[in-house]
Write a structure and sequence with these properties.
Elements: H1 2-16, E1 21-25, H2 30-43, E2 52-56, E3 79-83, H3 85-94, E4 99-105, H4 107-115, E5 123-127, H5 132-142, E6 148-153, H6 161-170, E7 174-179
Parallel strand pairs: 1-2, 1-3, 3-4, 4-5, 6-7
Helix pairs in contact: 1-2
Length: about 180
């Protein structure tokens, strides 16, 4: 699914003509690596070749933020694709004049980033979470007779714990919540 969403983004990126695309991962976790691989694969067949560079925030923790994306000059026409909330926050804060596409971020993290002072760079977000009620409707469709549902919440989306519990009870579910 992420590949399909990124596939919609690719023609726009190519048409805009960035000099390079810097992929910044919130960590070296497998799911972030898979998202980066899907992005690279989506770019492979498209001319012209746009250089891609990938960095994970935890791969070189001793480096300050601005050093995490070597080759990202101050005046070039490169874009940043931030995968995960921490990467989106760092990119938005430290590269405010760069175009930024944030993927695998929660709605609350994206809204927080949008409320911060901005530079000249354009911003777009591909959000991973949907309204709680929509998630429970989907759970009911998948298991009409189910009495239990479960979800995993990251550091940012853990603020939704109480909302999930109340909505699940109203929908007739006992919910198991795992905080990552």
């Amino acid at each position: 699914a992420l590949g399909a969403v990124l596939g919609l983004f690719m023609p726009l990126a190519v048409a805009a003509g960035p000099d390079a695309i810097h992929i910044l991962l919130s960590s070296d976790a497998p799911y972030y690596r898979e998202a980066a691989a899907a992005l690279r694969q989506a770019f492979t067949p498209m001319p012209p070749i746009i250089p891609l560079a990938t960095r994970a925030l935890d791969a070189e923790p001793e480096l300050p933020g601005l050093s995490r994306l070597p080759g990202l000059g101050t005046n070039d026409n490169s874009w940043i694709v931030a995968i995960g909330a921490e990467a989106a926050s760092l990119a938005s804060r430290e590269y405010p004049d760069r175009n930024l596409v944030a993927v695998l971020v929660s709605r609350s993290a994206w809204e927080h980033e949008q409320s911060q002072p901005r530079g000249r760079g354009l911003r777009a977000g591909v959000l991973i979470d949907q309204p709680v009620a929509r998630a429970l409707v989907l759970a009911r469709l998948l298991g009409p007779d189910s009495r239990r549902a479960g979800t995993a919440l990251g550091p940012t989306s853990s603020a939704l714990t109480t909302e999930f519990q109340a909505a699940a009870a109203a929908a007739g579910f006992t919910i198991d919540i795992v905080e990552l």
